[in-house]
Amino acid sequence: MKITILISLLLSFLSFENRNSPIDYTSENCDIKFNRLELLGPIIESIGGSSSGVFYSNGQWSGNIPGSNCMSNYSGDYVINTDVPMSIYWLIKGKNFGNLKGNGILAISHSAIKFKIINWSDTEIKINVESSYTLDSKKDVAIIVKNTLGQQSNPFKIDVIGMIGDGRGFGQCTWEASYQRRKLNMKISPSAYSLNLKPDKDYVPQIGDLVHFGTNKHTSIILSKPIKTSKFESVTIDKIKYDSIVIYTFNLRERNHNCDESAETTEKIFVKRKDKNASKILVKAGIQSANSKFGFASGIYR
Fold it and tell me: For residue 16, what is the DSSP state?
């Protein structure tokens, strides 16, 4: 009886030791090995990514907008440059992913977000991401990793914003101007505050024109085809007699002009005086923002 008890205890001890020793599983397709801890399945611990100056760091929007006192409500959201496909990467970190991308699966819950797997290891997955210019702000986007054993991670949720070119993140005036240009099938400006025209006596407003206020302060876009009207109005300025005025009326679209990242469309005018022969022209009223603190427009991009 004592011998039987001793043998039973010995077998139990050996069995316990065996349960805690590594167990290898090798797939014919991907040669991935797992130990006992890995049988818990993939675990996503953090996500990082690309960095670019003050605009975004480690894949996340910084909220630091140069020349502005407005901090973004989307600070910390993960960015996708929608103007340059696959130009930004995200780095998914964790464990138990498996060491080959061929049979593992990565899923992102929002269909507007496309990605390409660049590298895959047991602890890191690097992907390049892209989306269309219409991407604004998406909350609780879930990322899931599934390994070759069919085990999947819990959803790792992040918030995502679109960025049309470096620094033009959703919520900013520059994003809205670029977004509306895209909708009009027009190219975005080379930089956020590019200028090639002045709102002077020779300027004739056109739909799609970007209207800037101050130096790298604020931008907007003419969103409707300007309507031109004329009327008699006689006045003498600096010994020059002006007989009429020309009024251009249009809709101006702006975002974040009130530092709250909201958008607004308002009707605006641009008015010029002309003499009898239209040889002398003078700007009577420049273009103003919906927020009067910006004053009159200082530059145009067409």
Answer: H
